[in-house]
Batch of 2 targets.
Target 1
Amino acid sequence: MPTPERRPLLAAQEGIWAGQQLDTDSPAYNTAEYVRIAGPLDTAVFERALRHAVAETEALNVTFGTDGTGRPWQIATPAGDWHLHRADLTAEPDPQARASAWMDQDMARPVDLTRGPLFGHALLRTAPAEFLWYHRVHHIALDGFGLSLVARRVAQVYTVLMAGDPVPESGFGTLESVHAEESAYRESARHAADRAYWTGRYADHPPVATPAGRSALPARTFHRHAADLGPAAAGRLRAVARDLSVTWSEVLLAVTVAHLHRLTGAPEIVLSLPAMGRLGSVALRVPAMVRNILPLRVPVTSDDSLRGLAPRLSRELRAALPHQRYRYERLRRDLRLVGGQRRLSGPGVNIMPFEYDLKFAGHPSTVHNVSAGPVDDLAVNVYDRADGTGPRIAVDTNPGLYTESETAAFQEGLLALLAAALTDPDRPLGAPRAHRTVPVLDGGPLPGPARPVLSLIADH
């Protein structure tokens, strides 16, 4: 019997493997979304399309193991006879609530990386002509962009099967091509230049401030509070961004920085910014896990307006993006920020601009995120949807650091500040307050609000 093909892990997979080993039964690295399909669906043809797409997605047909030295490897392992869960929920009093409850239950299942499968799928009928396609995958296999490639492929294959046409090639590249490109990058002058940029930018080890003021052990779940901006607010967001000569996502980043400054008093906010890491890369065609984290440090004062802060943030971001392939984990080692509470960056802002205008044999759909993976501290997730309804802003928090009510209050305060900033971009974003010292995750004390976080948010 031939030995299964094995290869080293991609750079982004190494950190996830290590994180999972800290708690092998944790489901925290499960990521998922559901696609609401408006229209009748041929469920048998859909399952054929889904199985076709899974079979040709290399990253979904692997398992993981270690050698005698403890080094992890990725092993080619056909997913085999996996099950598509189907359920007709139309007779339920609240089909959507029942579907959400089922998804939550499925998300709580840990994945055995040594056995697989690394994914799960369900097709839930919630109305006579409406279906939810739920797909879950361990983050070690796919990042958000990889998940979007698979979703597009399922829609494409379903559409051609319904038309009776031959299924075209996927156009997917191979995991080996991504690994070869990563190896070449590590030996390149570009890698050295990127390292020099990051180690120079963070040589002074800037302190990391968060609303919690402390760190916690990785959690198996998270709190979430979400809201939609709505078409009118989304239109205003884009108009103000054009006026300021920045992108709408940079406006949201700037408002988040200002909100964090209000809560912590920190003179500089260091965000964790997930980056696709695929620009100019073969990985643009490969469903895989290659996402990186960029630390983004932004000076801020209570006198800053959106007109002043957004361009400052934009300049910092645009200086960093050309260096986005240099791994966050490697930078932490370079700066000797490994272990304990020695953080390189703080709360995250995850802008997900993937176009999800999927049609299933002409039937439109909308995509809804269920989980973007584990939350170390606090994360603002922004989902830009293609149906014209405006971005959805979901705040996820580590339950070891924040309560449900604190999570909701943070999100509500963020949206209130955003509304004020869009109404008057020249208005100072800070709030008058007395000061005290609050702890930060690395470094000395910083000035902070004298009143509790929830009281401060409630005023805005």
Target 2
Amino acid sequence: MLMPRQKTPDLLLPLLGGGTFDLSKDGAEKGTVVCFYRGLHCPLCATYLAELEKKTADFAERGVTTIAISSDGEDRAQAMAEKIGAKALRFGYDLSLAKAKEWGLYISTSRGKTSIGIEEPALFSEPGLFMITPQQTLYYGSVQTMPFVRPHFSELVGALDFAIQNDYPARGEYEGAV
């Protein structure tokens, strides 16, 4: 399990449009929002990522970068980016399932075609949303076993305003006996 205030696993992935995303070198002033999504086959992911695309400028105003990541290959990641009209949101692709497990993401098996008629991969990760500090430590994390009921990006923007203004620390870091 990832722990607040501790280093997260590394992330090194190809980016749509060229280049590489390296979490350890992202260079954001306040941190990086990492949004793991299920893949092109998920209609809820498309809606969710469209919201993140709209909020990416709000995060940037606060010194926070954003990235959407899945285990989809380049073609499927490109199709998702086009589907949501991505202009500001970066897309990383080819996330290995072993790396997804390092991040605490749940793995699902294919059930065939989804409600939108797109075949699910044989195995894929379920959603996760993380706020990572510039020092690559976990500030906020949420993982799900299902595509439903995800954190709202507008609430995360508001929480960042509070956290920045009040120098609020990451919580949930205690590992001792209870």
